[in-house]
Each structure stands twice: as C-alpha cells, then as structure tokens.
Amino acid sequence: MVRVPKLTRAEVAQALRNPLLYIAERWTPEPRTVRRAALSAVVMAVVIVVTGGAVRLTGSGLGCPTWPKCTDESLTATSAMGFHGAIEFGNRMLTYVLCAAVGWAIIAARSAKPWRRGVTRLGWVQFWIVMGNAVLGGIVVLVGLNPYTVAAHFLLSTALLTVALMTWQRIREGDEAPRPLVGKAVAQLAWLLAVAAGLLVAVGTVVTGAGRHAGDSSDVHRIPVDWKMVAQLHADLAWVVVALTVALWFVLKAVDAPIGPLHRTRELFLILLAQGVIGYVQYFTDTPEILVGIHMFGSCLVWIGVVRVLLSLRERPVAVAQVPEPERAVEQAEPAAAG
Please, which residues have CB within 8 angstroms of residue 65's CB and are 6 or more apart in sequence? Predict the structure, then answer.
C-alpha cells in the first residue's frame, strides 16, 4: 500500500487554486519522461485522425445522431444502435484519451526543471485546438455530416498534429535563438514545399467531400464538383510536392548541408512514394474503404515529414553557463591568496 500524505488546508487551497504549480513544486520529471509525454500527444493526434476516418468509412458518422449526448435520451451508445453507434461513440471516447495525452504533456512540461514557459504554452495551444475540434465535431453531427464542416474538422486535426510536433521538437532543443543551418534560398524552397503540401492536404479534403464515402448510409450532401477532376488536381499537386522534395534534396546535397535536413528530406520522399502508390491504387479500384483509411494515415505521415523537414533547417542550441578555465581560475586565485 502506498501511503497518501496528509495535506494541510493551505496545501489543498493551493492545489485547487493552481494545480499545475502545486504538482511542479513536488515533482521533477526526467527529460525522457517529458519527451515521451510530448510524443504521446503526437501519436494520439494521428490516432484520432485514423479512427475518425474509420467512422466515416464504415458509414457510422451518424451512429450517434446528436451531440453532446449520443441520443436525446442516452449519453452513451445503446445495444439497439448496433455497430455504427459503437464505432461513433468509441471515436468520441478517444477524444478523452487525446485530452489525457495533451494534459500529460502540459503537466510534464510545467514540472520540468528549469521551467520552459514556451513549451508549456505550446501544450496549451494543443489543448484549445482539441477543445475547438471537439465542438466542431459536434457541429458536424448536428448538420448531418456537411462535407465542408467535415473538411474543416480534418484540417483542424492537422493543425493539432503540427503543434504537437513543434512541442515535441522544442522539448528536444534548447532555448537559444534559432540558428539557420542552410541559406535563405534553400529555406524558401523548403517553405514552398510546405505550401504545396498544405494545398495537397486541403484539396484531399475536397476529394473526400466530393467522393462516394459520405460517412453515413443515408443520402448525405456532397461537394458539388466533378470528383474525377478534383482527384486529378490532387494527383497533380502530389507530383509537384514530389518534385519539390527531390529538388530540395539535390540542393541540400549541392550546398553540403548538415545530415539532419538531408535525412528528413529523404524520409519525406519515401513517404510520398508510398502514399502515391496507395493513392493511385485506390483511384483505379473505385476507392475501397481499407485503402482510403490507409491513405488517410499516409496523409498524416506526409504532413509529419513536411513539418520535420522545416524544423530540421534550424537548430536551437542549449544554453551553456560560462565556466572559467581551470588555469585561469588558479591564476585569479593566486593574487587573492598573496594579498
């Protein structure tokens, strides 16, 4: 049995007033614990996208027909609602797991010594994105899976993944001002790649919103565009992103860039190739559900690869305290001793 320490009335009041400060004053996590907490938020940001895709692809989008309760009478799914109710309600429950992961990252960052305010703020940005996306998810249900709200729901999840990656990266860096590892022209090429990748993801949501996977077995409104045309635009953008990735890799090699940016760019290229193969196969096989789900997971990996490329182009060294050299310290001490 673990003995629970007795708390005074003042300590209870402090814990209620500022629980994060109360925990931070009594617990110092190891650096790897803080890193793992941040990584758990990244993993859950991907999981929630994939499970959200599963809801859509199984036609369970309205398995719980209302929000925030599952039905007008029940907070949870009932056995009468069957498979679709269980899938939709299960995805809603995973939002709480995501909140726990983000909360764990915030607590670990706040309790780390020394406290890095910027890292904690990034954790809170994640929290508010999760809260906003939960409300947006409820709106998606209330408006009957309107494709524009579904697209916004996915894009906000991508924003969460971006901030989670930035938090994980910042924990592994120092607090010095960022120092570029490549020239301005190379950095601009990388940002052009990021913009193209962002357009690729955005157009991908239009492909989904115009396609046949409406998210529910009933007649759900689709985006009124030619699906094949927008799918072709999506494929063209994918080739642009691949071309920019290859160009960036060659430029990095030409300027003898550090190994980090080279490795991140190569990883992105391999992810893009795999994602492209899956995309073409699903297009020519009439978008089977399993391949669409894998493609959604791949879109997360592509965006992770793009963000990691951008973050690899600079470094933030850890501040090192200036310590006098031993010889100089001895020389300074000798006159004092003689005096």
Answer: 71, 141
The pair of structure tokens assigned to 239 is 């080739």
Phi then psi dihedrals of residue 212, to 5 deg: -90, -10
Task: Give the containing element (helix H, strand E) for 180.
Answer: strand 179-180
The answer to whether 155 and 303 have CB atoms below 8 angstroms apart is no
Query: Any residues with CB less than 8 A from the CB of 267 and at least 6 apart, and which?
Result: 305, 308
For tokens 């793992």, the residue is: 36
Contact 223, 206 (CB under 8 A): yes
Using CA atoms of 261, 265, 268, 272 in order, give the dihedral in degrees to the nearest 10. Answer: 170
Report which secondary-structure segment, H or E, holds 97. Answer: helix 82-111
pLDDT in tens, 26-84: 899 999 999 999 999 999 999 999 999 888 888 888 888 889 888 888 888 888 788 88
How far, CA to CA in Å, does 147 sit from each of 75, 80, 144? Answer: 25, 27, 9
pLDDT tens digit string along 81-132? 888 888 999 999 999 999 999 999 999 999 999 999 999 999 999 999 999 9
The answer to whether residues 165 and 311 touch, using CB atoms and an 8 Å cutoff, is yes
Euclidean distance between CA atoms 327 and 334, whole angstroms = 11
In the chain, what is the straight-line distance between the N-terminal and C-terminal CA atoms, in Å?
Answer: 62
Phi, psi of 60 (to 5 degrees): -105, 15
For the chain, how many residues are written?
A: 339
pLDDT tens for 241-278 read 999 999 999 999 999 999 999 999 999 999 999 999 99
* Chain Cα centroid distance, residue 265: 19
